[in-house]
Amino acid sequence: MLIRRRALAAAPLALLAGCATRFATEDAAGLPRLQVQNPGLQPPRDALTIGAETLAPGDILLSSANAMTSLGIRLATLSPVSHAALYIGNGHVAEAVGEGIRQRPMPAFLEEEATVVAFRHPGVQADHVEKMRAFVPKTLGEKYNYVGVLLQAPFSIERRLCELPLTPSLLREVCLQGMGAMQVGLGRTDRFFCSQFVLEAYRRAGLPLTQADPRLVSPADLLHMREGDVPSLRSEQVLQVVGYLKLAPAPEPDLRAPA
Q1: In terms of C-beta density within 10 A (0-12 exposed, 13-18 middle, 19 or more buried), how is residue 108 classed?
Q2: Can you give the pLDDT at residue 188?
Q3: What is the pLDDT of residue 253?
Q4: What is the pLDDT of residue 229?
Q5: How much is the pLDDT for 94?
Q6: b/e string for 66-77 if b means 16 or more Cβ within 10 A?
Q7: Residue 238 exposed, middle or buried by CB count within 10 Å (0-12, 13-18, 19+)
Q8: Is residue 25 assigned to a domain?
Q9: Residues 6+ positions from 118 with CB-CB distance below 8 Å
Q10: Into how many domains does the chain fold?
């Protein structure tokens, strides 16, 4: 059995964090290798910085901010992202935030976020975009799904038991769905939090991203649906990495001599 050194190096972290894993074929020889869920934002290829003009309607924007709320979500989900939004074209983004569902220009969105990465569903066609755009106005001003977020908070932590390394994908899926039904199943379905809003837009367009209950899906789950990663919940389509619209600068090293 062939297991890449990178997977071996990541295994101790996965044991502590409860990162999902899976076995996949390596090459024509068919030798299995262990894939470990990528906890970082770095895509499987070199980071690509893009401008907003590169985006296409239907692109999914995952982001993080410097606010305490964003930090809390990232800590709970063990992820570098805390928010999900939908690019609807013409330089505008639709999203579910605390004030409710809103639409705003891309510059305003980028100004508020510290890091923004774009992902693309390769199957989006013009008719899908029309359905997404028809869905957004119907929800503008609707209240945020605070109940769903509150119910998801303990689930985000306890779900790690279902994602222990070497847990078979089917068993992981059953465990997550079962635990979610008990902890999140009583939440509202007529209001949306950020990732739930994106999932609903895709469902209305006829391109569901997953068959899992949207109330179980966090921005971190959307991140792990990207190419080269291991999704915790089974995804209907691998998302392509478009690139970084904004990337928080790495902290500068402290070069001062120790006292």
Answers
A1: exposed
A2: 63
A3: 52
A4: 93
A5: 98
A6: eeeebeebbebb
A7: middle
A8: no
A9: 50, 54, 55, 59, 60, 61, 87, 241, 242, 243, 244, 245
A10: 1
24 part of a folded domain: no
Q: Locate 224 and state its tokens.
A: 């792990």
Residues 55-106 have pLDDT tens digits of: 999 999 999 999 999 999 999 898 999 999 999 999 999 999 999 999 999 9
Residue whose C-alpha is closest to residue 57's, from 112, 113, 111, 134: 134
| pLDDT-derived band at 24, boundaries 50, 70, 90 | confident
CATH number at residue 242: 3.90.1720.10
Distances (CA, A) of 29 to 33, 130, 165, 252: 12, 44, 24, 44
- Residue 193, both tokens: 């939090």
Instruction: Calculate the alpha carbon distances from 246 to 47, 61, 234 in Å.
Output: 11, 11, 28
Residues linked to residue 85 through DSSP beta bridges, in sequence order: 61
In a domain, 209, yes or no: yes
Q: Which domain holds residue 173?
A: 42-246
Strand partners, 115: 64
Q: What is the mean pLDDT of residues 132-152?
A: 94
User: 77, 220 in Cβ contact below 8 A?
Assistant: yes
Within a domain: 123: yes
